[in-house]
């Protein structure tokens, strides 16, 4: 038995013929390539003719071989797109589940807030209505910075009302006519507004000085003001509502200052906050130019030196 197995084993390994080692195959391919290069340099015209003669049949053969492969390649691309879509669907499902969880938490918090409000018998806050209108004209005076808006006393505007856009406070109504009003910008030299700075709610006065920055004045203790602190209106009695975004504390050549969030030069529309505590005053008009009339007092409340809770100048 052992001699028979030995003979079968020998036939199994010797019947396949001589094997070509990878090193020997690489040497043969390299020699063939070198030979073809030598022939192309020795006989360039004949080599070009042979290449041109073989190009047509080779392209035809490659095209025939490529035809059955094209559907498979398209299938692979569609399969890859499908896998990407499945991954996107899984991600969207996870986000949807997370949003549903947040929605449930928000509904639960609203329910708890309603219960606590009912238990505490809390007085509801009075809402603040607003009017939105277009800026009609801009002042070009070197020291007085203001804009003219398309609403006046007939629409309920009063001196001292805050004027905002989507970025923050633009300024305050300073002069009111029947159909137009003038808004004194924060950067105006006569502008004054009491603000609250940072987490410690430091009270100070933002004073208009130049086109880009507001000066800090009358900073109240504990004087804890740092670069980057957020600045909002303080909500002092007689002034604008509290919590309106004014700007951010920055360092300048003269110390700390406020850079306003809102840029009046880029604003086309503004909103005037109609304070529910404001009491309208009768308007007696005096002509100041075509299509614009003002109160004769010209908002005298802004000519007085502002106290800590007075309206901005």
Summary keywords:
313 residues, alpha+beta, six-stranded antiparallel barrel, 24% strand, disordered C terminus
How large is the share of residues in beta strands? Answer: 15-25%
Beta-strand segment tally: 14
Along the chain, the helix and strand elements come as: HHHHEEEEEEEEEEEEEE
Question: Could you state the oligomeric state of the chains shown?
Answer: single chain
Strand line-up of the largest beta sheet? 1-2-5-4-3-12
Structure in words:
With 313 residues, this protein is of the alpha+beta class. It is built from 4 helices and 14 strands. The chain has helices spanning 2-14, 22-42, 44-66, 69-120, and strands at 129-138, 146-149, 162-164, 169-176, 181-185, 192-197, 202-208, 214-217, 230-233, 245-252, 255-260, 269-274, 286-287, 293-294. The strands form 3 sheets. It has a 6-stranded antiparallel β-barrel. A hairpin with a 4-residue loop joins strand 3 and strand 4. Helix 2 (22-42) packs across helix 3. It starts with a helix and ends in a 19-residue tail after the last strand.
How would you sum up this structure in a few lines?
It is built from four helices and 14 strands.
Q: Could you outline the blueprint of secondary structure elements for this entry?
A:
Elements: H1 2-14, H2 22-42, H3 44-66, H4 69-120, E1 129-138, E2 146-149, E3 162-164, E4 169-176, E5 181-185, E6 192-197, E7 202-208, E8 214-217, E9 230-233, E10 245-252, E11 255-260, E12 269-274, E13 286-287, E14 293-294
Antiparallel strand pairs: 1-2, 1-12, 2-5, 3-4, 3-12, 4-5, 6-7, 6-9, 7-8, 8-11, 9-10, 10-11, 13-14
Helix pairs in contact: 2-3
């Amino acid at each position: 038995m052992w001699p028979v197995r030995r003979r079968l084993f020998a036939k199994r390994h010797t019947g396949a013929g001589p094997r070509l080692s990878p090193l020997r195959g690489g040497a043969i391919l390299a020699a063939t390539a070198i030979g073809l290069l030598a022939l192309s340099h020795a006989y360039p015209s004949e080599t070009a003719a042979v290449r041109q003669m073989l190009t047509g049949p080779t392209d035809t053969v490659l095209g025939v071989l490529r035809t059955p492969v094209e559907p498979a390649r398209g299938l692979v691309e569609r399969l890859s797109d499908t896998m990407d879509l499945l991954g996107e669907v899984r991600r969207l499902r996870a986000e949807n589940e997370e949003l549903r969880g947040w929605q449930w938490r928000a509904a639960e918090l609203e329910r708890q807030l309603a219960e606590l409000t009912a238990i505490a018998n809390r007085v509801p806050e009075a809402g603040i209505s607003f009017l939105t209108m277009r800026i009609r004209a801009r002042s070009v005076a070197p020291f007085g910075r203001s804009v003219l808006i398309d609403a006046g006393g007939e629409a309920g505007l009063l001196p001292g009302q805050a004027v905002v856009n989507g970025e923050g406070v633009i300024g305050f109504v300073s002069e009111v006519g029947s159909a137009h009003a003038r808004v004194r910008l924060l950067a105006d030299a006569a502008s004054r507004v009491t603000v609250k700075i940072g987490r410690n709610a430091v009270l100070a006065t933002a004073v208009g000085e130049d086109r880009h920055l507001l000066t800090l004045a009358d900073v109240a203790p504990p004087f804890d003001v740092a670069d980057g602190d957020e600045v909002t209106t303080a909500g002092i009695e007689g002034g604008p509502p509290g919590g309106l975004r004014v700007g951010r504390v920055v360092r300048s050549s003269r110390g700390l200052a406020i850079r306003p969030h809102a840029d009046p030069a880029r604003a086309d529309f503004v909103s005037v906050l109609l304070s529910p505590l404001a009491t309208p005053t009768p308007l007696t008009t005096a002509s100041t130019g075509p299509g614009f009339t003002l109160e004769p007092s010209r908002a005298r409340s802004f000519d007085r030196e502002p106290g800590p809770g007075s309206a901005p100048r």
